[in-house]
Design a protein that fits this description.
Order of helices and strands: EHHEEHHHHHEEEEHHHEEEEE
GO molecular function, one term: threonine-type endopeptidase activity
CATH topology: Glutamine Phosphoribosylpyrophosphate, subunit 1, domain 1
Strand content: 15-25%
Keywords: Hydrolase, Protease, Zymogen
Subunit structure: Intramolecular proteolysis generates 2 subunits, alpha and beta, which reassemble through a non-covalent association to form the fully active enzyme.
Pfam families: Asparaginase_2
Structural class: alpha+beta
Protein name: Threonine aspartase 1
Number of domains: 1
CATH class: Alpha Beta
Largest sheet: 7 strands, antiparallel
CATH architecture: 4-Layer Sandwich
CATH superfamily: (Glycosyl)asparaginase
């Protein structure tokens, strides 16, 4: 298990075994500008990421962070910044979202996406949409359901034929899966055939092609937002809608109205597992506890891994990035400037999860791209005690 260095104290904390990372870091408050602020945390999915594509996942997460931070520096609020991060993730041919998404059983690309603004609590989502290069832009118009393509084009979002969204890699995977399915049909029929088809698809993509992308953002005013986008399961039936388009399952964002913390969550993994447990909303609620590290650990264990809704599953596959923040007054106060304390963590039960993060004061994004593999989902834990980031906001 790789631990992250505490740059303030030059100490490396001990980490329990698990499929996740986190970091504690104190930022020198005196070095930070007082006019801009904000923070972004992105993920390129929980699943299996081959070593051959590790650099590409790392680069796209860095670009997504930079794009969101650029919007924050320009004065954008959290919802606009998180959408910008998702567009960058969708445009990469290596992620299972937007360009290069998995092809369904009919050889078409259908995408899911959603976005939630913690300030207004507005939520927008699209399910099984085709012919749109950036489904998160449609979700950002707060649209859901059938007819999304025509609505999007009518509101200025350019169409993109499905064949242009397919990449050499996704087409190659589709053809291999089709050959495997044809072979399975000759060997078996009925229930066993359906099961083999699903297993074939999952084997083709390591732990299943679960690399839904997502991001969470807090702006200089303390508003939070979250978004998620996915091309769905490889060889899915046309019209299948995954967690990325389901309320409370793919993403969640909520400013601190009557709660001590504002929270933002984005998930990845097996859509059915995340939908049945409503993991995004469950994690958001858990983060209102004082100890975020302990709260997320318990939520992943009790609300996901050991959830009664997943009792019949052999493996529970999922990952989550979470962010929470609160306003705090410096002691002693300096020019009556309030700071925003941001804490973020991530956890997953899959073999890997690519994560990047960046603040408005950072010159470049920081990355974590892989962790030690555990075969047992119950080993997913969060090294203590989380990553703290402090910036100035007027």
């Amino acid at each position: 298990m790789e631990s992250l260095m505490n740059s303030a104290e030059e100490q490396q904390p001990s980490s329990p075994p698990g499929n996740s990372w986190s970091k504690q870091e104190e930022i020198n408050k005196n070095e930070m500008p007082k006019c801009v602020g904000g923070f972004v945390l992105v993920h390129a999915g929980a699943g299996y990421h081959s070593e051959s594509k590790a650099k590409e996942y790392k680069h796209v997460c860095k670009r997504a962070c930079q794009r969101a931070v650029d919007r924050l520096k320009a004065g954008a609020l959290a919802a606009e910044a998180v959408a910008a991060a998702l567009v960058e993730l969708e445009d990469s041919p290596f992620t299972n979202a937007g360009m290069g998404s998995n092809l369904n059983l009919s050889g078409e690309i259908e995408c899911d996406a959603s976005i939630m603004d913690g300030k207004s609590l507005h939520y927008g989502a699209v399910g099984a949409i085709s012919g749109i290069k950036n489904p998160v832009l449609v979700a950002n118009r707060l649209l859901m359901g059938r007819g999304a393509h025509d609505w999007a084009v009518g509101h200025g979002i350019p169409p993109c034929p499905s064949e242009k969204m397919a990449t050499k890699f996704s087409l190659s995977a589709y053809k291999r899966n089709k050959r495997k399915m044809a072979l399975a049909e000759k060997m078996d029929t009925g229930h066993n055939h359906a099961k083999k088809r699903r297993q074939s698809s999952e084997t083709e993509n390591g732990s299943g092609c679960l690399d839904t992308v997502g991001a969470v953002v807090v702006d200089s005013e303390g508003n939070v937002a979250a978004a998620v986008s996915s091309g769905g399961l490889a060889m899915k039936h046309p019209g299948r809608v995954g967690q990325a388009a389901h309320y409370g399952c793919g993403c969640w964002a909520e400013n601190a109205f009557n709660n001590p913390y504002s929270t933002a969550v984005s998930t990845s993994g097996c859509g059915e597992h995340l939908i049945r447990t409503m993991l995004a909303r469950e994690c958001s609620a858990a983060l209102q506890s004082e100890d975020a590290h302990k709260a997320l650990l318990e939520a992943m264990q009790n609300k996901f891994i050991s959830s009664p809704f997943l009792a019949g599953e052999d493996r529970v596959l999922g990952g989550v990035i979470v962010l929470r923040c609160c306003r705090c007054v410096e002691s002693p106060p300096s020019q009556n400037i309030q700071g925003i304390l941001v804490e973020f963590l991530w956890s997953h039960t899959t073999e890997s999860m690519c994560v990047g993060y960046m603040s408005a004061q950072d010159s470049k994004a920081k990355m974590k791209e892989k962790c030690r593999i555990h075969s047992t989902a119950a080993m997913a834990q969060i090294p203590p005690p989380g990553h703290y980031y402090h910036y100035k906001a007027r």
